[in-house]
Amino acid sequence: INPEKGSPGAAEDMEAAESFIQQAMEIILQEAVKKATNVKEKVCEWRSPEQLKELLDLELKDTGESESKILQCCRDAIRYSVKTGHPRFFNQLFAGMEPHSMVASFIIEAIKTSQYTYEMAPVFTLIEDVLLKTMMKLIGWEEGGDGLFNPGGSMSNMYAVNLARYRYCPDFKEIGIYASPRLVMLTSQECHYSIAKAAALLGFGTKNVYVVPSDNRGKMIPSALCTHVSLQGAVPFFVNATAGTTVLGAFDPIDEIANICEKHNLWLHVDACWGGGALVSKKHKHLLKGIQRVNSVAWNLHKMLMATLQCSAFLVRDKSCLLQRCHCAGASYLFQQDKFYDVSYDTGDKSVQCSRKPDAFKFWLVWKAVGTRELEYRVDRALALARYLAQEIKKREGFRLVIEPEFANVCFWYIPPSLRNLPESPELWKKLHTVAPVVKERMMKKGSMMIGYQKHGDKPNFFRMVVISPQVSKQDLDFVLDEIHRLGKDL
Amino acid sequence: MEPTTGDLTDPLINHADGQLFLHEAFKIIVEEVLCKGTDVKEKVCEWREPEELARLLDLELREKGEPQENLLQRVRDVAKYSIKTSHPRFFNQQFAGVDYHSLAGRFLSEALNTNLFTYEVAPVFVLMEAEVLRGLRALVGWTEGDGLFCPGGSTSNMYAMNLARYRLYPEVKSQGLRSLPQLTVFTSPESHYSVKKGAAFMGFGMDNVILVKVDDGGRMIPEDLDEKIELSKSQGAVPFLVSCTSGTTVQGAFDPLDLIADVCDKHKLWLHVDAAWGGSVLFSKKHSHLMKGVHRANSVAWNPHKMLVAGLQCSVLLLKDTTDLLKKCHCANATYLFQQDKFYDVNLDIGDKSVQCSRKVDCLKLWLMWKAVGSAGLEQRVDKAFLHARYVVDQMKKREGFQLLGDPQFVNVCFWFIPPSLRGKEKNADYQNKLAKVAPVIKERMMKQGTMMVGYQPLGDRVNFFRITILSPLVSQKDMDFFLDEIERLGNDL
After folding, report:
1. Mean pLDDT of B28-54
2. Any domain includes B89
3. A22, A479, B111, B154: which sits with the fewest CB atoms below 10 Å from its CB?
């Protein structure tokens, strides 16, 4: 090996490298951005796993491949990937394509740094701080607080649990939770499954998550919470309220829950990963009424507000460096105390991660580009579209709403003609349960759209339409209903 | 302004504008970050104090948006004041350099913007991740196994702890730790701090991370491990995991895996190898001996975003297990995501192996790079880094004022720079104090001048020394010479 020469693929020859990147970018812009957001193109190009393996030629070999082959690999990866920015992709709680966020993402990839210290990420450190402060203002924390960005909302929820535990007994950090009182977490039956995963990972055990029933609108019942709080033999220390549940899009009554938590000195965390977006809307922020009273909030900007994945904020109403004290390990190779700048700018010890991506930038650039008013308009529009969809469903034969939507989730059954005149009975539910999976299969194989379905409690499979993207319009929603009927009418 | 029903007829976002912005911004990224960022004639960093930088960036978020020209200027500003981690004279962390294939893979991952929880939403990447993990496991010496990509090596190390705990006491998932005996973890004081953070986070407590002695080179001493395990047992605790390190953060030491595996086999402990930094030696026929015995481990953490230059983040956890332990340990079976009545084989929905819900696609960057250069190309990269490190060490031995901590096993070269004023004064009472002050000043000077970036830290009773980590494929001997000259230039007057 000649140490003087660059390795293959890490070209010292800037021209060759630039040319490759330009070509790759052309493909990305054409195929993954332009075509992928074009309603005339397919949402997905379905292939079975066996077929796809063959098409992709995944095998990793000893020798490298030509540049043209690599570019073809890029094309293939795009072709067979689901176009999550397509106007008819409604499958998850993220959708659409925000170009400013995408530019921010590309910058982050090119700059390729970690956010643990100011010296390594001066710009991104300051940006994260400003974004968090602005979010806290929207929440209503006049005195401010603390926070950071995490690799996902599940992690943010886990941080809340960990902080609540640390506040309850800081000694747990050193001695662990052996021989401790039986600490229990309280949450609603509609909450995200990351609460259960948090209980398992953090050493509490899933049995020690008490599930509080929700009403028929999917909202936690405060009086039931009261009962659970007073149960013997266990020490409640943490309550998770959900602002925007995953399936129904329901909002727990935060004010009432806060009353109970304050009375019993419980940490109140709001999982607003999905519903937090309502806070930018004067018209809809009442859904999170009371949020200024809570101890911590998880809010995913990559959902309703369309930052690219991942952009998950964790915010805590604390000015005593609780986050730092709870998580720090004081590693001397990274957090030297004799640096030449103010080391309070080094945020790394607030995290349980070491290297951490500068995700806040993905949304800061969006906000700078469009401003709060436009963000508000987007949210209001998405919710107006959801209401429109609900109205259309009520007008159409064969479609039935599960509940009146409060947010952007529109849940409904499609009842094919053959089942429409059957009496309401468990037999009907059983048959209805088989409809959505077939319609889903057909829509994916056709590539015309993607919508999620699931069973829920004792309800048979129903569709969950999620309206997010400002690229979506009434026609797309009409199309969804028409298409479901087209695909399912023979069932 | 409240949207009326009429407004709902037209899409709100104008994609043509958006695509133009992408196009223009990309030109700036190429020019400012990729070209200038790798040019030795340009600075590594443009240092500003936080208050000044905040002013320059105009960070405030406002009611109204901005025109495209403003935004493009912002892109330029972000590029200007960010650290050029691909610069040939950036040696500050365990990542550096740039690989253009992985970069293309990273841009593509961002553009496709999807999550790796189900086959239906990420068909290409579910299959690709499996293939990459298979390839990495093969290098460890496993023909079967499990694993996944995690958001960083700290998470990988945590997963290993969780799996080891679950294997020993499956009921811990539902019952928690409080009814179990005290569990203890064993690691060296040179290991990464994520072992301790993980222990705290997962409820074990930092005190239950028992530190095992290391030798002069920073390698775990197996005899002491055995003793400490016996001691822990005699105190009524239940040792359950040894987390040893292949490539420690500061010194780059490799714990002796074969001997440690002997101890783990004897006591039936889970052996986890944190090879986040050193794992890439497995690509090198010449240097993989440093991890001899790794196939005997239960789990391996490995960060290709470090020595393989895959770009942050690219961290894997590899498992020898074939009993679906990962999924059993982590699953929650959410019915809205992991329906059992899907029309394809739902075993492809790997989301429940993770504690994350949404999980980024981190495999494409590695896969594309590996396809482009082949295992042979990655081997060359690793071997070259060793050669550079050897060159720097040889040069330091010839130059006055450079004192190595030891003979490096890996590509971390740790040394003190002793300015002329301190040379020969080792016996002075305040020698250590004065020496400790040298590195921080040189660091400040190099950053303010933007000529290069190198890290320093204390270790145990050794005062501040520099740690240069050499891994970038863009680096050449000229850069190594410059580095040595620059340290002298910046520190000679101290």
Report:
1. 95
2. no
3. A22
Dihedral of alpha carbons B20, B26, B29, B31, sign: negative
Residues in chain A: 491
pTM of the predicted model, to two decimals? Answer: 0.96
pLDDT tens per residue, range B399-457: 999 999 999 999 999 999 999 999 999 999 999 999 999 999 999 999 999 999 999 99
Residue A284: CB partners within 8 Å, gap ≥ 6?
A278, A379, A380, A383
Shared domain check, B377 and B355: no
Give pLDDT, residue B474: 86
Axis crossing angle, helix A122-139 with helix B50-57, rounded to the nearest 10? 70
Instruction: Look up residue B31 and give its DSSP letter.
Output: I
A324 Cβ contact list (under 8 Å, min separation 6): A146, A349, A350
Q: Is the pLDDT of residue B159 over 70?
A: yes
> How many CB contacts within 8 angstroms connect chain A with chain B?
555
Which residues on chain B are in Cβ contact (under 8 Å) with A102? 22, 110-111, 113
B131 and A58 Cβ atoms separated by less than 8 Å: yes
Q: Does A127 touch chain B (CB under 8 A)?
A: yes
Residue A443 Cα, gap to closest chain B Cα (Å): 12
pLDDT at A1: 44
In this prediction, residue B229 carries a pLDDT of 98
B12/A440 touch (CB, cutoff 8 Å), yes or no = no
Query: What pLDDT does B1 receive?
Result: 47
- Domain membership of residue B78 (yes or no) is yes
Q: Is CATH 3.30.460.10 the classification given to domain A104-360?
A: no
Strands A459-466 and A409-414: antiparallel
Q: What is the reported pLDDT for B6?
A: 59
| Best residue in A201, A378, A430 for a mutation probing chain B (most B CBs within 10 Å) | A201
Residues with pLDDT less than 70, chain A? 1-12
> Could you tell me if B315 and B382 lie in one domain?
no
pLDDT digits 0-9 by tens, B66-79: 999 999 999 999 99
Contact A52 B127 (CB under 8 A): yes
Contact B19 A33 (CB under 8 A): yes
Question: Domain of B37?
Answer: 15-42+46-82
pLDDT value at residue A12: 54
B247 CA: distance to closest CA in chain A (Å):
15
Residue whose C-alpha is closest to residue B275's, from B382, B115, B389: B382
Q: B79–A111: do the CB atoms touch at under 8 Å?
A: yes
Residue found by looking up tokens 């005899």 in the block:
B223
Contacts of A368 (CB under 8 A, 6+ apart): A100, B61, B62, B65, B66, B71, B74
| Confidence at residue A5, expressed as pLDDT on a 0 to 100 scale | 46
- Enter the tokens of residue A343: 């080391």
Question: Which residues of chain A are within 8 Å of residue B47 when distances are taken between CB atoms?
Answer: 122
Q: How far is CA A161 from CA A183, A240, A266, B67, in A?
A: 11, 9, 11, 42
Check if the beta carbon of residue B338 is closer than 8 Å to that of residue B351.
Answer: yes
Q: Is A230 exposed, middle or buried (0-12, 13-18, 19+ CB in 10 A)?
A: exposed
Residue spans per domain, chain A: 23-90, 104-360
ipTM: 0.95
Nearest to residue B100, comparing CAs of A169, A70, A253?
Answer: A70
**B174-205: pLDDT as tens digits:** 999 998 999 999 999 999 999 999 999 999 99
Domain count of the fold of chain B: 3
Of A82, A109, A475, nearest to B107 by CB-CB distance is A109
Chain B residues 325-364 with CB within 8 Å of chain A: 330, 332, 334-337, 339, 341-345, 348, 355-360, 364
Is B231 in the same domain as B323?
A: yes
Cα separation, B26 vs B108, in Å, equals 13
Q: Tell me the average pLDDT of chain B.
A: 95
CB atoms within 10 A of CB B345: 11
